[in-house]
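Is adenosine-5'-diphosphate placement plausible here? Inputs below.
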Amino acid sequence: MLTVGPKKIKIVLLFKRLFVAKIKIQYVCNSCGGIFPKWQGQCQACNAWNTLEESLETQSQHRFQGITKPALQQKLSEIAIEDIERISSTIPEFDRVLGGGFVDAGVVLIGGDPGIGKSTLLLQTLANLSLSGLSVIYVSGEESAAQIASRAQRIGSYAPDLSILPEIQLEKILNTLENVRPKIAVIDSIQTLYSDSLSSAPGSVAQVRECASQLTRFAKSSGVCLILVGHVTKDGSIAGPRVLEHIVDTVLYFEGDTHSSFRLVRAIKNRFGAVNELGVFAMTETGLKGVSNPSALFLSQSTEIVPGACVLVTQEGSRNILVEIQALVDTSHIPNPRRLAVGLEQNRLAMLLAVLHRHAGIACFDQDVFLNAVGGVKISEPAADLAVLMAIQSSLKNYALPKDLVVFGEIGLAGEIRACPRGQERLKEAAKLGFKKAIIPKANFSKSIKIEGLEIFPVDRIEHAINLVRNF
Ligand SMILES: Nc1ncnc2c1ncn2[C@@H]1O[C@H](COP(=O)(O)OP(=O)(O)O)[C@@H](O)[C@H]1O
Ligand SMILES: [Mg+2]
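Reply from A.M.:
I modeled the complex. Tokens:
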């Protein structure tokens, strides 16, 4: 009979532990990142329910930390400073949000609702780049090669040399990219990919995270610029763990109403440029077209003056945009009146209504309040506060504000109106578009400001502003 001594078994186990990379499955919470060896309904770290997802754990790298050579450190003065070389996307509005263009080894994530135009914009970009002689590749997990070709034909972006790769297996894609080494590759979309090393389905958090991190590692080691398309969940964040946003260099979001033709591309994070830059596009028969002067896009087209509308000058990155804020205040027949804001922050609306009651004596506790920013824009800057309250007051008292009035200003809890950044630029933009009156924070006003054709009314408290518009 063949027997193996206990000493031999021990040696084999030790060998395995030291030299064979262990692949273990672990469960990671997608809201806090807590790691657990078994699946459970609730994350013990952050108490969230149903957030644990299967993920891959490889221990081999950690085991050898003691014997590897120490990592090389460098002094700042020893590092050669390189200018970041930009590859223009050939679409000026797209370059603006990218901070000037694509960067070698950069990873860009583009998110947005289905049908908003992600694939269209990227196909147009790649077609233009391919026509200019650059090596680019479009990896599509969603559409067949024939569908892409017919879209290219339809939008007039037919580049005969553009490479299309309809594939969803990560290892095959990486292999192709490794062989071809294109300058830029688009992955449409990250949710359709799957890696063989995981058993979970494509689109699951574990798969999305694994595919994105392998692709990012490839981009960094090879210098290929990658553009990943990401789907957006119902609550508006890119599906998959937040980690996805952390591992890439640039995160762009497509915004806008799919019913209107305007699309906004906003930079949320950018390691190579300014954030909050905005690219404005119009969806046309021949694809997305950049709109270089969008200031007046978000004003409603009605020629009559109606109660409940107020024009705001808002700033998006380096741009001034005029947006009409609409409010509807109506008697409520339910115990908890509704407060609904589209394109503006709902919590801020509740706070502003409290300020309006406490400091200007205007109560809305028995009224439903609906708020909308025209054109599907999302406004997050507090400079919109004053325009919101003006629109609400105008709808509640049923009088229209002058059509040639613009407003901006942040409102504090004490009812004071605070200054907004770059007030003078906002006023210039309003004057350029033919507005005649402006209500602005007193702190933004100085006697030296003279803007032709614009009458400026500085205010420092909410009650002053409300009294002022009553007398217009
Ligand atoms: N055959 C067509 N004719 C005209 N417009 C089309 C056609 N097919 C798609 N579109 C337009 O293109 C948009 C789809 O854009 P797409 O780039 O596929 O979006 P995403 O990739 O973000 O899901 C649709 O919303 C529609 O407006
Ligand atoms: Mg698409």
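Short version: Residues 118-119, 142, 188 surround magnesium ion (ligand 2) (CB under 6 Å).
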